[in-house]
Structure formats: structure tokens, C-alpha cells
Automatic annotation (TrEMBL):
Keywords: Hydrolase. This is Alpha/beta hydrolase. Residues 40-294 form the AB hydrolase-1 domain. Coiled coil: none annotated. GO terms for molecular function: triacylglycerol lipase activity.
């Protein structure tokens, strides 16, 4: 652990310590770390518009209890990390999505997923972590693919959760799921925004496994911690301006496990299959009944799969 950083107990998770890390590239990332310093590290990279608290406490604790040091963080533009103020022209999202569907990259976003992968490399340097296991979820899985290809010396093993390599002609997200994610709340007050978050959780999550009380508490906690919709749009543009990762996947030499839910309607499971097919020697695991989330019911199975892969 870097002793020059100031750590305090996380207000959300007593078994994690939090700190803010200046990457030296104009970005500061808010980070939580749990587990023993000399245990092998797992870095968790979250998805589009998702604060680090989307990695459930129970999931983090389960990995810590299996002998790992767990690091989760807010990506740039979300949570308590730096927000990117962009003065460039407004981009036509639907035009970009059209090109993206054919595997083409786009121009004009304030940053892309390669920049976000570099954030992870700088974070590891600042924390004094030479190499780590990586788990990336959704957009975080795309960042993890780039990170594993571009910074192999920093990577031990890779696990990818409900993600994609955005290769051309993969089935698109179901419209209901996509538009719930990029849609606007009915009103701008706290209740309107929390109700919108709840709707998103229910639309993209695992059918029959969403605890509505927990979901409501989570939505309120996330809103009160940080609400920055401009960051969600900019992260979405970062995906659209990165394009297909098929060539990146061919460069990954690290042992890779790809995990996907059978009920994922935001990124159907064929996206995960495409990733595992493109990475040499990758293993694919389909979780029956799981959607595009990490509900408590599936955490023992997921954390067990990841711990076994990393050991």
C-alpha cells in the first residue's frame, strides 16, 4: 500500500478503506481497498454510469474472505472521481450508434476506453501494485480487455463479467433495456431520479432475484453520494468512439474467464461468447437466470468462480 496516501474507513463499508488517488494526468480517482496488503490483488472495473458501489459489499467481502485484496474505484466522470468538462461540439449519438453497429469507431468524444484503461495502469502505479487480477463488468469488461492487451506486465489473470467486444453484427441490446439505461428520469427531483434508477435495476437485472427494498436503498445511497448524468453520456460516447475490440482480444495472452447471464437482455449472452471465442484459450461460463447485475443470490457462485480462476 502506498503510505503517502491518506486512508480512512469507508462510510459505506467498514471493512474497506477509502482514499483519493491523483493519477497525474489531470484525473483523481476515488478508491476503496479491503483485505490484507500481502494477499494477491483483484482490481474491480465497473460499467457504464455505475459507481463502484455497484460491486456489492457482500461480493467484495466474499473475495476478501477467500484470500484476496480487493480494490474498487469510481471510473472518471462518475461517483466521487474527477468529472470531465468537455467544450467540444455535441455529437449525434444515434449516428454514432449506427457506425458502431458495424464495428466502426467514431471521433469526437472527450476520451475513449483506451484512456480509461490507462487510468487503471496509473492507479496501480500510484497504489504500488505491480500486478493484479482484473475483473471487469460490462463497460468495465471492455476496459479490462484493453488493459490486458496493452499492459500485460501488470496483469496476472482476467475475468470478464457480462461484457462485449463490440464486434460487428452482434445482436443489439433489447430496446427496453438500452433506453432504460440512457433514458431520462420523469422528474429532476430526488424521488424522480431514484424511481428512474429503480426502473433501470428492474429492467436490466436478474428476473425474480431483485430485492426491491435493497434496490431502493441502493438507489438512494447512490443518488446522495453522487448524481452526474453528463458523465454517463460521456462514458457512453467513450464506448461508441472506441469501436470493436476484436483485434485487442487477439493480443490477450493471460488466462481469461468470461462469465455471462442467460437472462441478460442489455448485452445478450452471445456477446460474452464472442469475447471468449476471440481470446486465445478463454473459458466461458453461462449463469442460468442471471441478468445484467450482481444480485445476492448469485454472489457465492460468482465469487467462487473468480477465486478458483485466480488461484
Amino acid at each position: 500500500m502506498n503510505n503517502s496516501l491518506q486512508y480512512s474507513i469507508s462510510p459505506y463499508t467498514p471493512f474497506m478503506q477509502e482514499t483519493t488517488v491523483d493519477l497525474g494526468n489531470g484525473i483523481q480517482l476515488h478508491v476503496e481497498i479491503g483485505g490484507k496488503t500481502d494477499d494477491p490483488a483483484i482490481i474491480l472495473i465497473m460499467g457504464l454510469g455505475a459507481q463502484m458501489l455497484f460491486w456489492p459489499d457482500f461480493f467484495c467481502k466474499s473475495l476478501i474472505d477467500q484470500g484476496f485484496r480487493v480494490i474498487r474505484f469510481d471510473n472518471r466522470d462518475i461517483g466521487l472521481s474527477s468529472k470531465i468538462r468537455h467544450k467540444g461540439p455535441r455529437l449525434n449519438t444515434f449516428k454514432l450508434m449506427g457506425r458502431f453497429a458495424f464495428g466502426l469507431s467514431n471521433q469526437g468524444s472527450p476520451y475513449n476506453l483506451y484512456d480509461m484503461a490507462d487510468d487503471v495502469a496509473l492507479l496501480m502505479d500510484r497504489l504500488g501494485i505491480a500486478n493484479a487480477n482484473i475483473i471487469g463488468a460490462s463497460m468495465g469488461g471492455m476496459i479490462a480487455q484493453i488493459f490486458a492487451a496493452k499492459h500485460p506486465e501488470k496483469v496476472d489473470k482476467v475475468a470478464l463479467l457480462f461484457t462485449s467486444n463490440n464486434q460487428p453484427f452482434l445482436p443489439p441490446p433489447f430496446p427496453k433495456q438500452l433506453f432504460s439505461l440512457i433514458g431520462k428520469p420523469a422528474s429532476r427531483d430526488e424521488d424522480g431520479i431514484i424511481n428512474h434508477s429503480l426502473k433501470v435495476f428492474n429492467v436490466i437485472g436478474s428476473p425474480g432475484y431483485i430485492n426491491q427494498v435493497d434496490a431502493l436503498q441502493t438507489a438512494r445511497k447512490l443518488y446522495q453520494r453522487s448524481y452526474y448524468p453528463a458523465g454517463v453520456l460521456q462514458q457512453f460516447l467513450a464506448i461508441l468512439c472506441t469501436g470493436s475490440l476484436v483485434q485487442i482480444d487477439k493480443q490477450i495472452q493471460k488466462p481469461t474467464l468470461v462469465v455471462h447471464g442467460s437472462k441478460d437482455r442489455l448485452l445478450p449472452s452471445s456477446h460474452g461468447k464472442a469475447v471468449s471465442n476471440a481470446i486465445s484459450g478463454a473459458k466461458f461460463e453461462l449463469i442460468e437466470g442471471m441478468g445484467h447485475d450482481i444480485p445476492a443470490h448469485f454472489i457465492p457462485q460468482l465469487s467462487g468462480l473468480f477465486a478458483k480462476h485466480f488461484k
